[in-house]
Amino acid sequence: MVVQCGTPMIGNSVRIEMANIASQLVLCDIKISAGINMAFGKRLTLSPNDASSKYSPTGAVDGNTINTNIHKCSGMYANDRNNKWMDVDLQQRLDINLVLLTLYQEAGFLATDFTIAVSNGGTFKTIYDNATDSRPMPGIFLSSKGQHLRIQQMNGSSHFTVCEIQVFARSMQDRLTGVCTSGCVNRWTGKDGMCNKNCSISMWGEECEHPCGQCSNGAPCNVSNGHCKTCAAGY
């Protein structure tokens, strides 16, 4: 069973509860997804960039959140006194709502005095300042639009090391094409995710072209596949 939220929801716990107290609740697996990490595998730019360093040039966008191996992280040494930054090109303009940073485990590495900024190819706009913002790390809930996400260190005398950058966002492409990327609500359907057809309780399909079978108690069938929860007696 897949339960898809019609609108983004923020929380730290999920309860699954049976409606009938006389029945059993037995689950073999539960998966909860915050969406797709839009930073995975994208181009990462470091400044200053030292090709001979022990850091990985792609470690912060390789999907590995282990923070105990510095060779799997991206970063720059503290001996360069200039402010350092790393920029992830998300390759499309996105509605960014959550940034997760996995920092290197040892003390003396990036933990304070940094900012997060976004850009659409021009000037960067700061959307998070670790020195003044009360939002906790490593999960930062944001509401910003941009293609480039930059993490900039404000203290040039410290190491700048990030093991993984995860950016959870909603593509703005659906606003241009009309496609509902999160699926349709209620009995709305349509070809190619357009959600422009509202099926009656007796019909199903992309164009509401198929009649439902005999569902028990006259219940509607599933608008996507025509399935009944249970069949009427004899069917």
TrEMBL record:
SUPFAM superfamilies assigned to the protein according to its UniProt record, in alphabetical order: Galactose-binding domain-like
Residue ranges annotated for the F5/8 type C domain, each copy included: 51-135
The protein's name in its UniProt record: F5/8 type C domain-containing protein
Protein source organism: Mya arenaria
